[in-house]
Amino acid sequence: MSPARLVAYDVLRDVEDREAYANLALASRIREARLDGRDAALATELAAGALRGRGRYDRIIELSAGRDAAEIDPRTLNVLRLGVHQLLGMRTAAHAAVNESVELQRRVGRANAAGFVNGVLRAIGRSSNEEWDRRIAERARSEDDALAAITSHPSWVLRALRDALRAEGREGELAELLAADNRPPRVSIALLPGAGVDPETLAAGSAADEAYPALSATGPSPLGLELSGGDPARVLARVGVPEGLARVQDQGSQLAALALTRLRPVSPGERWLDLCAGPGGKTAVLGAEALRGGATVRANEVSAHRAELVRRSVAAVAEAVEVVSHDGRDAAAFGDRGAVFDRILVDAPCSGLGALRRRPEARWRKRPADLPELTALQAELLDAAAERLAPGGVLAYVTCSPHLAETRVIVDRLLRRRPELRELDAKAAVRGVARGGDALDLAGSAPSAQLWPHRHGTDAMFIALLQREA
Ligand SMILES: C[S@@+](CC[C@H](N)C(=O)[O-])C[C@H]1O[C@@H](n2cnc3c(N)ncnc32)[C@H](O)[C@@H]1O
């Protein structure tokens, strides 16, 4: 019985029983089992693939077993999900995938269901991916149901994503977006201003170092690099940039921070606020930009633990950043009574539907019922921030969700509540900072900018910019 399969199985249980994050559960289970690099990679592929593909795999298991997934013992169902991923997602030889799964079932589930596992998986292994998708489509309740099952998305998420694309006149991109959600992203790195080298020069240097995976100066952020593989921490330790100035960060997040900091030149003495800063990725960009321009940043985060992560994240630019921990709706988050800020980032807590490719289990954990509480909080945080925006100051509202209820609806309502705010052209601001500039394909007539995994290779970040009347 391969130890990687046992680890992958345990991770599936951790995610289900303890609501664990798959990446954290994987790291600790791999450590506990002392897997070597190859087995660790196999355990990761198995667990992440089975979690991401769960919707589609369950439908295939139901078709093969002739019963609902909900009627199958949960332990057996996880064994089957791992087995189907090997058969259809990894092209493991069918006999090996079936035999290993039967062994796993004997070890972790009811031994008397080993025959059931054997039969269901053998039947699945006899048909190709295309044939299974055709069968899913034939038996589906509707076209949406078929698309949701085949692309392994919950139906409500599929509808939300389509609504957001339709609002930009790009409904036709839905299939591409759903496919992009199922591809683990390339590792992106931000090289912060102050690193003493630009991404292009660093990439050229790394290409000459054959012992390490290459960095390339690609992606839409002017600070961005992409890594072809390997452990980013080891690669970053090797590149010779001062610690903390080269860091793993999605390029959509980089662009969101830069759209605010580079919207117009920084006047020395400007005061900036990052209201929801944890764990501090964008704060580090703000801090580096503030240092260059002579501004200072107040970074607030409600959770004390995450505020500590912000402190660590900004260590390289700490002289420009003060970190505090309060509820962003409380006056204490803003410091001295009457203090106002020239630029405020509200990177609000959100459903995270724009980052599904990063966390394989996330799509199954979110519920539409989570949204009302989140949208209420988003509106309250924005109101609190708008109160403390200096005359002429700019507020950036950012989410890593494209759900319209968390994006345009929130902004339109804010503008109605607060006539002193005017929405700026965030598309122009993002294009203005992006690598490739005007070629960046931002769609729709709204002034806000929506980035997408399938179109930009970033998380689906939403960025709106609002200016207070001078
Ligand atoms: C989307 S994350 C911010 C990500 C961060 N800007 C970055 O780039 O690393 C939202 C953060 O808001 C925090 N948060 C949630 N409720 C809050 C509140 N009432 N006040 C302030 N922060 C809050 C969460 O703990 C979370 O760390």
How would you describe the overall organization of this protein?
GO terms for molecular function: RNA binding; RNA methyltransferase activity. The chain is an alpha/beta fold and 470 residues long. The chain has 3 domains: 3-142, N-utilizing Substance Protein B Homolog, Chain A; 187-248; 251-468, 3-Layer(aba) Sandwich (Rossmann fold). It is 49% helix and 12% strand. It has helices at 3-17, 22-32, 37-52, 54-65, 74-89, 94-108, 114-125, 129-139, 143-150, 155-167, 174-181, 199-207, 232-238, 251-261, 281-293, 304-313, 362-365, 371-387, 408-417, 426-433, 453-456; strands at 187-191, 215-216, 224-227, 246-248, 271-274, 296-300, 321-324, 341-347, 389-399, 421-424, 449-450, 462-468. Strands 5, 6, 7, 8, 9, 10, 11 and 12 form an 8-stranded mixed β-sheet that branches. Strands 2-3-1-4 form a 4-stranded antiparallel β-sheet, with helices on one face. It is globular, with a radius of gyration of 24 Å. S-adenosylmethionine (SAM) is lined by residues 253, 276-282, 300-303, 306, 327-329, 347, 349. S-adenosylmethionine is lined by residues 253, 276-282, 300-303, 306, 327-329, 347, 349.
Quaternary form: single chain
**Strands, total number:** 12
Radius of gyration: 24 Å
In CATH, what is the class of the largest domain? Alpha Beta
Number of helices: 21
CATH homologous superfamily (4th level) name of the largest domain: Vaccinia Virus protein VP39
* SS content category: alpha/beta
* CATH fold topology of the largest domain: Rossmann fold
- Mean pLDDT level: 96
Unreliable runs, pLDDT <50, ≥5 residues?
A: none
**Into which percent range does the helicity of residues fall?**
40-55%
In terms of DSSP E residues, the strand content is 5-15%
Number of domains: 3
List of distinct ligands in this structure: S-adenosylmethionine
Main sheet overview = 8 strands, mixed
